[in-house]
Amino acid sequence: MGIVEILGVAGSLSLLAGWRLYLTILATGTAMHFGWLPLPEHLAALQVLANPWVLGVAAVGTIAEFLADKIPWIDSIWDTIHSIIRPLGGALLALALVDSSDPAWQVIAFLLGGGGALLSHGAKATTRAVVNVSPEPFSNAVVSTGEDVATGGLLALAIAYPPLAIVIAILLAVAAVIVIIALRRLLRNIKATLKRALGDEPPAAGELPPAQVPTLDR
Asked: Is the dihedral of CA 54, 59, 60, 61 positive or negative?
């Protein structure tokens, strides 16, 4: 297994952990425990995830996250709490895939894993904050269910086909960057619109405030 494929799998797991950390751990550990997926040899370092205690904790976390992620604003609170947990979990998952005898690659994997998880977590949390202001009551459930399905499907592909993992990791990273940039622009436009609506927008250059505009006496 080449270093590019290893980093691809590590990147995929880390980025998906930014969406669903507990589901990523549970799915990987369950597949290793029961042999449901043709796991490649390089995932042997993750054998600890097949431990029944680890699976039990991951299952509880998955259920809690599944329920919390469907409720408006509760999902944002959950995301805020996991702003450190997800990046750290993604970094540790990436670290477990790298040869422990090479400290340099361990540091690289830890930094890239944590950064990837933080990137996808930021995109997810920002998206959910925007969805929460939507008056449509089913938006959260639809978006959350889509994330559940996407996480499971992409995780299965990354584990079963390591050469494809690098493509998945790149696409996830690019998509996260695009989402964050687009949402930041959207939020900036919304903020500017609200300021204009409330009359808090500062006057343009050369324009007098309303109170200073001269009037003609009749």
From this structure: positive
